[in-house]
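Predict the 3D structure for this chain.
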Amino acid sequence: MPHKGKPKKKEQKLFYRINEQIKAPEVRVVGDNIEGGNQIMPLEDALKLADEMELDLVEINPNANPPIVKIVDYSKFLYEQKKKLKEQAKKSAKVEVKELRFTPNTDDHDLQFKLNHARKFLEQGNKVKATVFYKGRSILFKDKGRELLDRFVEALSDIAEVEQQPKFEGRRLVILLKPLKTTKKNKSENAKN
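Done. Predicted structure below.
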């Protein structure tokens, strides 16, 4: 039975004009159940054809000339489109920026501890933002903070590269590291083994 009316609220993200909502005088009908798989016809004929098959006429490309429509079960069509969107979302990389904070007087043990965290973040494919905070008179020791960040970058040079050079943002010295492209590949190879 053809689907009538507007889609439900949950379906609003994937809105397609269907049946009587389509306003073009002429449409290109595509699909498996169409002779030749691709026909240009008046909208009324396409609506009749869809009604005879007890399916919906769905406008899949309104910007084409004439608009492209498909004769399908609208509910099934929406389900498949949502499934495709989920697959695309899974494939898209989600990169987070993890922040590590230091002071210019951070000792070696603390630096090593934070290096271990940074290494773990980078191996997961995240970016690392290292920030040196200057409190009070510690601003006089700008060189110490820069040296600390240089040691930090050098210790991670095997798995990371500098995306943003150290720069001052008020009383903070900030550097941004991103994982090397080979890091992600190595991680996926290790997971397979």
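The two ends are 51 Å apart (CA to CA).
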